[in-house]
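Researcher: I'd like a structural prediction for the single chain below. Treat it as a standalone chain; there are no partners to consider.
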Amino acid sequence: MVPRIVLLSALLLCATIGTSAQTDRLDDYLKAEIAKGRIPGLSAAVLRDGRLLTAKSYGLANVEFSIPVSRDTLHQLASATKLFTGTATMMLVEEGKLSLEDRVVKVLPELPAAWSTVTIQHLLSHTSGIPDWFEASAGPQGNRLDLQATRDEIIKKISGKPVEFQPGEKWSYNQAGPVLLGMVIEKISGGTFEDFLDQRIFKPLAMTTTRFGNSRDVIKNLNPMWYMWENNALRRFDLDYPKWSYPGAGLNTTISDLAKWDAALYTEKLVKRSTLERMWTHTRLNSGETADYGLGWSVFDLEGHKAVGHGGGRNNWIVHFVDSKFTIIVLSNLFRADALSLIKGISALYLPPPKPR
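Model: Treating it as a single chain, here is the predicted structure.
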């Protein structure tokens, strides 16, 4: 069991704007939810117009050695990495080096003929129908991926499987799409996917602590693992993402760096506002129906507010409330902790009731 004193102790990072009453209510709410959910460690931040209102950390990043979560703790984003992969892809689209309508085989001709009608847009929106490589364990050992395989070997493995549906026919969350987008970015840029994000996103935004890696890597201040409850006992849940899967889930970052990322959404430093709006538009399927996903971003209604963002393992969520210009971030190290529910509770403390539509 995690000691109650750990769950209920809070380390205030900063509270730059906003009323002390709001901060106190946020603190009380999170303490209660952390205790109820038995979450070992958590960071949360609230931003408005790209400016940090408050950011807090609670509990332990590493239970075994009683290392607290702090403003310098690197959290493993898991699938929230896709926000950055999607943005990197759209940067190339803006520059005219790529089109959403381009068929992926135009850039990667080595792909199987069965994927010949899949476009960049299909990959970004999870509507490609290509087979998925992801097979994860829900047990305490964490991911069971082939760490020794090369990316080409993985592509060859899944290319032998039949397509799941015709491109654009339906929406189905797919981990192979981001891997292919990473390959596209590398082919067009002439460098590695990691270097492209570092040079074009992280360094320009001074996201100095953000880096790729997994539970096996030795990285300063990295929250080295997630935890999960099993038979009322706390177990470790390792995230052993191989390097070839990084475009889908391999990024580690801090609350402070994510605040810089959020601020950039208002400045057009990375992409134009019109590009963001395109990324934040519901995907239209061949049938005319829409999916709750845009281009690299989830697009949905949250408590009556238009929201965009992405989750990772359910215990991480970054949600941007488009009309209110609010962003709420929750990063925790309990596998499948319901971070989105926490964001709903936090939003009620800061956002006005939505206007009738």
